[in-house]
Amino acid sequence: MSDPTDQLQKTLKERGFSLTAVRKTTFEALQDSEPLTMQELVSRCQDFDRASIYRTVMLFEQLGIVQRLQIGWKYKLELTDSFIHHHHHLTCIHCGVVTPLPEDATLEKRLQVLSTLQGFVPHDHQLEIRGLCRNCRPSSTIA
Ligand SMILES: [Zn+2]
Ligand SMILES: [Zn+2]
C-alpha cells in the first residue's frame, strides 16, 4: 500500500478535488485513531469549524474514503479498506468502546467462499460484533 496521504491526494485529484488543509487534517485524525463519532472528529480538528469538517466528511463518503460504521442507531466514522488495512470491530454496548478484532485470514476466506457459493460477487463487507468489553463484562465486578 502506498503512502496514505499520497493516495488521498490521488483519489481527490481524480475527481477534481485538491488536498486542502481541512481535508488533510480530517484524514489524519481518522488515520490515527479508532473509529470516531462526528463529535469526536470535530474535537480533534480544532483549527477548523464544525461545518467544514461536516462537508469534508460528506465529500469523503462520496469518494469512498470514509465509511460509516453503524453502531446500533448511531454511527462512527472510519477510513475505508482502501486507506487502512481491512479489519473488523468489537463494540461494547455498555461503554461504546470500539476495538479492532485481530485479523484472521481463515475468516476472510470463508466469507468470500460463502458469498461466492450464493452466486454473489462480494466487493467488501463490515462485520460488527456487539457485546461487553473487558471492563464492562459482569465477571470483572465479581472478580
Ligand atoms: Zn465497555
Ligand atoms: Zn473481513
Can you offer a commentary on this structure?
With 143 residues, this protein is of the alpha+beta class. The protein is built from 6 helices and 5 strands. The strands form 2 sheets. It has a 3-stranded mixed β-sheet, with no helix packed on it. A two-stranded antiparallel ribbon has the order 1-2. Strand 3 and strand 4 (98-101) form a beta hairpin. The mean pLDDT is 90. The structure holds zinc ion (2 copies).
**Total of DSSP H or I helical runs spanning 4+ residues:** 6
Give the SSE order as H and E letters. HHHHEEEEHEH
Helix content: 40-55%
Please provide the count of β strands: 5
Radius of gyration: 17 Å
- What small molecules accompany the polymer chains? zinc ion
How does the major sheet shape up? 3 strands, mixed
Cα separation of the termini: 44 Å
What is the general shape?
Answer: globular
Q: Average pLDDT, to the nearest integer?
A: 90
Beta content comes to 15-25%
| Major sheet: arrangement of strands | 4-3-5
Report the structural category.
Answer: alpha+beta
Low-pLDDT segments = none
